[in-house]
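Re-running the complex after MR caught last week's input typo. The corrected sequence lines follow. Everything else is unchanged.
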Amino acid sequence: MPIVKFLVRRLAFMAITFVVITAGLYGVMMLSPAEARATLYMPRTDSGISFNQLQLIIEEYGLKAPYPVQYVRWLGSVLRGDWGWSPTLRDDVLKALLRRTPVTAELILWSVLLFIPLGIFSGAVAAWQRGRAADHSFRLLAFFATSIPPFVLGLMLLAIFYVGLRWFPVGRLTVSSELAVKSAAFKTYTGLVVVDGLLNGRPDITMDALRHLVLPVFTLSLTHWATLGRVTRAAMAEELHKDYVTTARGKGLSWRKTVWRHALHNAMLPALNSSALSAAALVTGVFVVEVIFGLPGVSGLLNASPGNMRLFVPDVAATMGFAVYGVLLVLPLMFILDVLQAFIDPRLREGAVL
Amino acid sequence: MRRLRHFFTVRLNWVALLIVGFFFTVALAAPWIAPPDDPAHPALYRYLEGQTQVAPLPPGPGLPLGTVAYMMDSTGGRELLHFDIFYSLVWGTRTVLRFGLLTALAAACLGITLGAIGGYVGGALNFALMRITDAFLAFPVIAGVWLFRTVMQTANMELVDYTNLTPVSIPSTPFQHLVLTLGIDPVMLTLILFSWMGYARLINANLISLKEAEYVQAAKVAGQRPLRIIFRHLLPNAIAPIIVLLARDIGGMVVMQAAFAFIGVSGTVNSTAIPEWSRLLMMGRNWIMGAGGNPFLYWWLYLPVTAALIVFGIGWNLLGDGLNLTLNPHEVARKRFG
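Corrected-run output:
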C-alpha cells in the first residue's frame, strides 16, 4: 500500500523533527547553569526553592553529566508527561498548557479554515484574470497585507473597532457567557466554545465567541492569506502556459472548467507546500495575536513574570514546556497539509517523489 | 550590465532605493537632524529634565513628535522620565539598520555554510543536514526567543542556602558571560539561529543541480580543487536568490524584533541591546493598551514608530522584489514574454 508507506514516512519525519528540535532546545538550556536546569525537576511547592534543594536535585538527576545523558533523561520525562512545575504559574506545566489549549486551537482552526481556501481561490482568480482589474486589486491588497506587521494591524484594529467603534470586544467571552460556560449545566464536548455553544443549544454563546474571534482571526489570517495567494497566483500562471491547458482549450473546454478543474488541481500543490512551510510562522503569529487581543491562550505562559526577585527562581519548566508544545502544535499542522497534498497528487501517494 | 540597466528601468525599484537610501541618510545625518546634547558622546535617547506632568507630552515646539513617559529604574529609585520620540526615532535608524544587517547577514552566512557543505559533499551528510533544516522549519521562533531570554535570566542567579541562611550566587556560564559583556540582544541570537534555513535550502538545491552541470564537470575533469570549484563556479551561480532573500530579511528581522519587543518577550527596557524603535514601542505600550490606555489620545506614541517600521519593511521588500526580477533570468523572461 503506497499510501501507508507515504503516511509512515511522514510520521517518521515528524518523529525525527521532534527529536532534533528537543535536542536543540535542551542544548540551548545547557548554556545556563546546572541549578537552572535543576528547576525542571522541582518539587511541586508554592514556596521558593533553596540552594540546598537544587544541589540535591542536581545530584539525583545527574545534571552535571554529559549532554546526551541529560537530554535523554529529560526527553524521557517529557514523553512520560512529566513537564515539570512552574513556580510562577504555581501549576503543573503540562496541565496549564492543556487547560489553555482550546483557545489557541480555536484561533488556529478558524484562521486556517479561512485563509487557505480564500488564499487559493483569490490567487487562482488573479492568475486567471491576469493583467485585469481583479489581478491588480489582488496584488495591491496582497502588497499591503504583507507590508503591515500583524502586531501593528492588531493594534490598529483594536484602536478602531474596540476603543473607537466598540463593535468587537477583546478577550474570549463576555462575562455573562463566561459564567454560563463555566456553570455545571454547560457540557464541554470539544473545548471550542463556538462548537460547544451549538451542541449545548446555546447559539447566543456561539455568537458571542464568534464576535470575540473576528479581530484576532482577521489579524492572524491576513498576512498568510496574502502569501498563499501570491504563491498560488505564481503557480497558476505557470500552469496556464502548459500544453495540457492548450489541449483542454483545444478540445472545446471552457476557460472556467480549464482553470478550476485542471490547472487549479496542479497549482494547489506548491500552494499547500508553502502553507506547510509557514506553519511555524502561523503558530508564532497566534501567540502574538493572543497577547495583543488578551486571549487567555497558551501564550499566557509567556506573561508569567518572576515573582520573588530575591528568591529568584527562573521558570525553566514553563519555558521548555512552551517550546515543546509549540513544536507539537506545528507538526500536526504540517502533517495535515502533507496528507492533503497526497490526496491531490497521486505521484506523492504512490511514493514517486518525496 | 544589461541586468543592472534593467533594474533601473523599473519605476518601483527607484522607490525601493529611495526608501532604503533615506534610512541610511537619516542614520548618517542623525547628528544634524536631531543634534545631541553632548556631540562628543551622542546618546541614542534624550529625556527632559524636571517634568512634573505624568501623561506623555503631545507634539509641540522643540518636540516634533512629543514624548513618551516611562517609569525608569535608576540609581535613586524609580523615576518618571519623558523621552523625546523624534530624537529616538532619528538615532534609532542607526541601531535598527545595524540590527537588520547584522542579523540577516549572520543568518545568511550560517545558512550558506551549512547548505554548501551538504550540497557539495552530498550523500548521508547532506541528508542529515537537510533533515535538520526541515526540523528547524517546524519550530515557532517565539518559543526560541523566550528560551534564550530564560537562559539569560539565569545569569547571576542568587539562591538562599538554608543551612546558614546566606545568599549563594551561582556563577554564570561562559556563554552568559560572553553575551552580557558583548551586550548582544538574545532576540538577535534567536533570529539568527532560526532563520538560516531558507538560505541553506536555496544554496543546497542550487548546488545539487549545478554540480551536474557540464561546466562544473569540466572544471572537475580539468583537476581543479574542490574549494576552487565551490567559490569559482558554484557559489556565483547560486548567489542571486540569496541576495534577494537577504534584502527581504533585513526588513523582516527588524519588524519581527519589534513585534517581540511589543508583546513583551524581548529584553527589558533598559537593555542596551534593544533597537531604539522597539524601545519606544515598549515604553509606549501601557499608554496605548494598558488600563486607561488610549490609542486615539496618545497617537504619537505609536503612529510614527509603526509607520517608520512599515516603510522600512516595504523598502527592503521592494528592493528584494526588484533584485529578484533583475538577478533571475527566468523571471525577466517571464515578465517580458509571459
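None of the earlier attempt is carried over here. Strands of chain B lie at 47-48, 67-74, 77-84, 158-161, 166-169. Chain B has one domain: 2-139+194-337.
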